[in-house]
Amino acid sequence: MKICIIGAGSSGIVAAKTLKQHQIDFDCYEAGSKIGGNWRYQNDNKMSSAYRSLHINTSRKMMEYSDFPMPAHYPHFPHHSQIIDYFDDYVAHFDIVKNIIFNTKIIDVSFTKNRKKYLVKTDKNETKEYDGVIVANGHHWNPRLPEPMFEGEFEGETLHSHYYRTPEIFENKNVLVVGIGNSAVDIACEAARLHTGKVFISTRSGAYILPNYILGKPFDELSKSIPHTLPLWTKRFLLNTSLWLARGKQADYGVPKPKRPILSEHPTNSQDLLNLTGRGKVTIKPNIQKLAGKEVIFEDNTKEKIDIIIWSTGYKMTFPFFQNDFFPAQEVENSNDLQLYKRVIHPDYKNLFFLGLIQPLGAIMPLAEIQSKWIAQLLTQKTALPSDEFMWLDIEKTENSLKKRYKESKRHTIQVDFYDYKAVLEKEMKQMRAE
Q1: Do 2-142+315-431 and 145-311 have matching folds?
Q2: Rounded to whole angstroms, how far apart are CA atoms 171 and 89?
Q3: Most buried one in 114, 120, 258, 397, CB count within 10 A?
Q4: CA triple 358-207-58, angle to 5 deg
Q5: Are 329 and 338 in contact (CB under 8 A)?
Q6: Contact call for residues 134 and 4 (beta carbons, < 8 A)
Q7: CATH architecture under which domain 145-311 falls
Q8: 284 and 258 in contact (C-beta within 8 Å)?
């Protein structure tokens, strides 16, 4: 057996390590010259969204791999350069670099004639046959602009947050950041700290702002002590109480509270936003009504002179190596919705796995590690899958549950709760033992 791994980011390298531990032969293809994916600043694979000041927004203890802790001298929320050093040490420690083929893009994946294996073609005009494919190419690299674009024309500069690197572009300019996710807030705060122009954030529905710390400890580490089996209303009560103790009401700082209850949309982590809005350095605005030359008109009929707009409006789920007659890649890119069994497996494609294609309330890396272990058990037949019918029913059930809880948005199509999802995968590995 030989497996193809596409991508050597945080998910691809843990897949490589796990396959090696299970004595499964593999090749891992990476478009750039080094590992690290989205976390490598100025990555020459041209797919990284990392900006110079980027730090992780989940604490190191929550983000690290289970068998390779981050160095104890690292801060609670390391800089991207420290994360890359950690990744480099990881692949060296487990001796997997020799299986990574750098500077090589996968341009096509298809079935062999008997549909039992996969043909994988690279941009070096080489085609190899594999028993399975693990897709780990990430989902934060192909920028999505507002759809449809706002009415009118804008005469200033525009930039998607994917291409943002340093705050000098904001000097002496009025800045509008569209979106209120983690990157949007980071960028707005950087612009505000220059103190050279006005800074606005435009958001359709707002977001719950979570601090990095509470009572002197990383906020996300407190979730370890809360049983994941608690009903959703109890989790909401505990989280709301914790937030009230940590910083009171966010509306008092000038950041409106969303209309939907907490845990009905992805929250935003920031230790800085409320301080800056409270000081008037960042102003929250509603959705854009119209672009009007050098001004932007908002849905509350206010208008502001803007010099530069940063579109922090998310990313497309893109698989450039899938042709549409093999896999509905374009359909998935348009909808940002790929229905998979336990977020990993499409029932119609044997031994085709999607790794890290999740948006957790927490870190992706430990979950990608568990996904990798499950994949390795399936490949070595230590674990079996249920019937296709069962998988499709489970996919439908998961989709209905997601729609019931979250507002309809392309951002929430792959949402998972960290501990709930971790428990689901662990149960799957124990429950479906191969006979």
Answers
A1: yes
A2: 38
A3: 120
A4: 50
A5: no
A6: yes
A7: 3-Layer(bba) Sandwich (3.50)
A8: no
Specify the CATH architecture of the domain 2-142+315-431. Answer: 3-Layer(bba) Sandwich (3.50)
Distances (CA, A) of 28 to 49, 96, 99, 163: 22, 9, 6, 26
Q: Are 284 and 255 in contact (CB under 8 A)?
A: yes
Return the closest-CA partner of residue 372 out of 358, 384, 355.
355
* CB within 8 Å of 51: residues ≥ 6 apart: 41, 164, 165, 166, 183, 186, 187
Torsion angle of C-alpha atoms 369, 372, 374, 380, degrees rounded to 10: -140
Dihedral over Cα of 355, 410, 120, 137: its sign: negative
Beta carbons of 170 and 190 less than 8 angstroms apart = yes
**Contact between 278 and 253 (Cβ < 8 Å):** yes
Task: Render 189-233 in DSSP notation, one character per residue.
Answer: HHHHTT-SS-EEEE-SS--PEEPSEETTEEGGGGGGGS-TTS-HH
C-alpha closest to that of 177 among 301, 284, 294: 284
- C-alpha 435/C-alpha 426 separation (Å) is 18
Q: Where are the domains of the chain?
A: 2-142+315-431, 145-311
Rounded distance, CA 277 to CA 183, Å?
A: 16
Q: For residues 91 and 37, is the Cβ–Cβ distance under 8 A?
A: no
What is the chain's pLDDT, residue by residue, as a tens digit (435 residues)?
999 999 999 999 999 999 999 999 999 999 999 999 999 999 999 999 999 999 999 999 999 999 999 999 999 999 999 999 999 999 999 999 999 999 999 999 999 998 899 999 999 999 999 999 999 999 999 999 999 999 999 999 999 999 999 999 999 999 999 999 999 999 999 999 999 999 999 999 899 999 999 888 898 888 777 888 899 999 999 999 999 988 899 999 999 999 899 999 889 999 999 999 999 999 999 999 999 999 999 999 999 999 999 999 999 999 999 998 999 999 999 999 999 999 999 999 999 999 999 999 889 999 999 999 999 999 999 999 999 999 999 999 999 999 898 877 777 889 999 999 999 999 998 876 644
